[in-house]
Write a structure and sequence with these properties.
By secondary structure, the protein is α/β, with parallel strands linked by helices. It folds into two domains: 128 residues, Rossmann fold (3-Layer(aba) Sandwich), CATH 3.40.50; 162 residues, 2-Layer Sandwich (Alpha-Beta Plaits), CATH 3.30.70. Helices cover 48% and strands 18% of the residues. The chain is built from eleven helices and ten strands. The chain has a five-stranded parallel β-sheet with strand order 2-1-3-4-5, with helices on both faces. α10 links the parallel β9 and β10. α2 packs parallel to α3 and α8 crosses α9. The radius of gyration is 25 Å and the shape is elongated.
């Protein structure tokens, strides 16, 4: 498979109809087919699809219902859908567009026209994807921002709940960063944040892990399917990688170089809880580290919750 080609899914119960479109598009795109609405919905669960060409009239589940289900699913709602039909009545076209389709093409198909329309819709999708990508990135460090973090944490919480897996989180704070900023200046402070962010990314090796800027000089790492001991290993790696940067911090009471404090929380999500609980656990562990002298990591303990059910003040 050519990884540079975008993937188009043709959904049509009539083989001949699907083959005509496939032959028109196969030179420019990776083309796959589904013979029913159900097959389409199953296919998009496991394969990245850039655009769907969807027949309106199909047995069991028509194209309108398939589109409705695609748009109701957060994982597939952004895939552009083009309806293909022999019905040219305006009410049918209106219905398709109201359901969220980007276009409605009437048979018979004109190869140059359908190619041009698909090219335009994919170009628009690429532009949206680029804008969305940058909207989820922290402008200074280039890692994920708080907006993305909140969405990712929610997604991983529900995923871990469904699978019954452990979800871990690290809340990381640069020790005495205000003193560093005041002494070395904001330009140096920005450079320090970028170097720490890069070190955090290098400390987290799996594709599913999320490294994000939580706010100010705080960062968070989300570790799906990672038990407590695995989270501790990541925290230790972070401590070592930050130390290896050797960023001088003359005003730090704990070291001559920049250091970090890390709160570690691990839990198997429950229906009665929520992702905010995991953040609170990591926050309480971080508070404990900072109270005990900083430049270390601390695992959240259940006894910490008995002392406080609310977020600790920052120091």
């Amino acid at each position: 498979m050519d990884l540079e080609k975008q993937t188009i899914l043709i959904v049509d119960d009539v083989y001949f109809n699907a083959k005509i479109i496939e032959d028109i598009l196969c030179e420019d795109y990776e083309v796959v087919t589904a013979r029913s609405g159900k097959e389409c919905l199953e296919y998009v669960k496991s394969t990245k699809i850039d655009l769907i060409i969807l027949d309106v009239v199909m047995p069991d589940m028509d194209g309108y219902e398939v589109c409705r289900k695609l748009k109701a699913n957060p994982a597939t709602k952004k895939i552009p859908v083009i309806f293909l039909s022999g019905r040219g009545e305006s009410q049918n076209e209106t219905k398709g567009l109201e359901l969220g389709a980007v276009d409605y093409i009437i048979r018979p198909i004109h190869p140059l026209v359908i190619k041009a329309r698909i090219k335009n819709h994919l170009a628009l999708k690429n532009q949206r994807d680029i804008l969305e990508k940058f909207s989820f990135r922290d402008a200074l460090t280039g890692i994920f921002n708080r907006r993305y973090l909140d969405e990712a944490l929610k997604k991983e919480w529900h995923g871990s709940l469904r699978k019954g897996e452990v979800l871990s989180a690290l809340l990381i704070d640069i020790d005495y960063f205000k003193k560093y900023n005041d002494f070395y200046g904001h330009v140096a402070g920005d450079q320090c944040l970028c170097m720490v962010a890069e070190a955090l990314q290098k400390s987290s090796l799996r594709a599913g892990d999320v490294v994000a800027r939580y706010g100010g000089e705080e960062f968070m790492v989300i570790l799906p399917a990672t038990p407590q001991q695995g989270a501790v290993c990541i925290a230790q790696r972070i401590q070592n990688n930050i130390a290896a940067l050797k960023i001088e911090n003359e005003k730090s009471p704990v070291d001559t170089y920049i250091t970090v404090s890390t709160g570690i929380a691990s839990t198997i999500p429950m229906i009665t809880g929520g992702q905010k609980e995991l953040v609170e656990m990591a926050d309480l562990a971080l508070y404990k580290v900072k109270n005990n002298g900083r430049n270390a990591y601390q695992v959240f303990l259940d006894t910490d919750f008995k002392k406080s059910r609310s977020l600790r003040p920052r120091t």
